UniProtKB/TrEMBL annotation:
Residues 65-166 form the Sporulation stage II protein D amidase enhancer LytB N-terminal domain. The lineage of its organism: Bacteria, Bacillati, Bacillota, Bacilli, Bacillales. NCBIfam families: SpoIID_LytB, spore_II_D. InterPro entries: Bact_Sporulation_Assoc, SpoIID/LytB, SpoIID/LytB_N, Spore_II_D_firmicutes. PANTHER family: AMIDASE ENHANCER, N-ACETYLMURAMOYL-L-ALANINE AMIDASE-RELATED. This is Stage II sporulation protein D. Pfam families: SpoIID (PF08486).
Length: 337
C-alpha cells in the first residue's frame, strides 16, 4: 500500500514539473526579464529621434549681436519651444512645427520684404519668429526643461522635413494666440488677399485663458493716442466689422479710424472690442489675442484635445493647403549660396 502511495505521488510531481521544464528553455530567462525587455524595445521603438539637418540657418542673435548658424531642425525646435507652450497637446505642437518650418523655408526661397541684419536670414524676435536655444530654455523652464524639450523635440521629429504648400509653394504660415471665435481674412488685416488665409470659425478659443481682456484708459490718454477729441459722453460708433467679426472702422466725433489702427495705437490684445465710458475713464473689452490671421494656437490645442491630428488642424486653418516635402526648396536655397 505504501509503495502504491509513493508511486502515485511521484506521478503527480512529474505531471506538475514536466510542462514547466519544457517551457523554460523557450523563455530566455524569467518571465519578468522578458517583460522588461519587451517594454524597453517598445519604448525604443516609439521614441522618435531628430535626424541630422541638411542645412543651417544663419540667425541673428539680438542679445549677443552676432550671427549664429543653427541646423534647420534644431532651429524649428527652438521656435516651437518659444512660440507655443510645451504643455499643449502633442498634435498642436506638431502643427506649430509645420508652421514654423514652413515659415523659415519660405524665407529661404523668397525675396525678403523684411530685411534681417547683414549675414543672417532671420533674427530671433517676433519680427520673424521667436527663437531660443537650449541654454535660454534651461533658464526659462528650469526643473521642467527635460520633459518639455523632449516633448517639443518629438513634435518636430515627427514632422521633420515637412512643410505646408499651396500651388506647390511654401505658404505664409501665419499664426497667433487666441481668436475671438473666428480667424480673420488676410485681406482684412493686410492689403492683399491670400486664398488659404480665409476666416473660419474657431469656437474652441472661448476656452482660452486669453480670450477676454479689459483695459482702462484715461480720456485724455485715449484722445492723445488716437489723435481725436471726444464729444460729450459718447466715445464713438463702430461702423463696420470684418469677416472675422473684428472692428473694421469706427467714427469718433466725426473722425474715421480703422480698427487695426486703434488696436495698435492703444496696445489692445485684439481688434474685436467694445467700450464704455465711466466718468473720465474709458474701459475697453477685447475678445481674442493677436491679429487673428492663420492658425489659432489655443484653437489648435483644444482641437487636439478633441482628437484632431496635426494634419486636421493645419488643413482647417490653412484652407486648400498640402503637407509636402521641403527637400526641393532646401536644395534651391543651397544652390543660391
Amino acid at each position: 500500500m505504501k509503495q502504491l502511495i509513493v508511486v502515485l505521488t511521484g506521478i503527480c510531481i512529474l505531471i506538475v514539473l514536466v510542462p514547466t521544464l519544457l517551457v523554460i528553455p523557450f523563455q530566455g530567462g524569467s518571465g519578468i526579464k522578458k517583460t522588461e525587455k519587451q517594454a524597453q524595445h517598445q519604448e525604443k521603438k516609439e521614441t522618435t529621434t531628430l535626424k541630422e539637418s541638411p542645412v543651417s540657418i544663419p540667425v541673428y542673435r539680438t542679445a549677443d549681436r552676432r550671427v549664429e548658424h543653427i541646423p534647420l531642425e534644431e532651429y524649428v525646435v527652438g521656435v516651437v519651444a518659444s512660440e507655443m507652450p510645451a504643455d499643449f497637446e502633442i498634435e498642436a505642437l506638431k502643427a506649430q512645427a509645420l508652421a514654423a518650418r514652413t515659415y523659415i523655408v519660405r524665407q529661404m526661397v523668397s525675396d525678403q520684404t523684411i530685411r534681417s541684419p547683414k549675414g543672417s536670414l532671420v533674427d530671433d524676435t517676433q519680427m520673424f519668429q521667436v527663437y531660443k536655444n537650449n541654454a535660454d530654455l534651461q533658464k526659462i523652464w528650469k526643473d521642467d526643461y527635460r520633459w518639455k524639450i523632449k516633448k517639443v523635440t518629438e513634435a518636430v521629429a515627427e514632422t521633420q522635413g515637412k512643410i505646408l504648400t499651396y500651388n506647390h509653394k511654401p505658404i505664409d504660415a501665419s499664426f497667433f494666440s487666441t481668436s475671438n471665435g473666428y480667424t480673420e481674412n488676410a485681406a482684412a488685416y493686410w492689403t492683399s488677399d491670400i486664398p488659404y488665409l480665409k476666416s473660419v470659425k474657431s469656437t474652441w478659443d472661448k476656452k482660452s485663458p486669453k480670450f477676454l481682456n479689459h483695459q482702462t484708459f484715461e480720456a485724455s490718454e485715449f484722445e492723445q493716442k488716437l489723435g481725436v477729441k471726444l464729444g460729450g459722453s459718447e466715445i464713438g460708433k463702430i461702423t463696420e466689422r470684418t469677416p472675422g467679426k473684428r472692428v473694421a472702422s469706427v467714427v469718433i466725433n466725426g473722425k474715421k479710424l480703422a480698427g487695426r489702427d486703434i488696436r495698435e495705437k492703444l496696445g489692445l490684445k485684439s481688434a474685436d472690442f467694445d467700450w464704455k465710458r465711466k466718468g473720465n475713464q474709458i474701459i475697453i473689452t477685447t475678445r481674442g489675442y493677436g491679429h487673428g490671421v492663420g492658425m489659432s494656437q489655443y484653437g489648435a490645442h483644444y482641437m487636439a484635445k478633441d482628437g484632431k491630428t496635426a494634419e486636421d488642424i493645419v488643413k482647417y486653418y490653412y484652407k486648400g493647403t498640402n503637407i509636402s516635402n521641403a527637400t526641393e526648396f532646401v536644395n534651391r536655397y543651397m544652390a543660391k549660396k
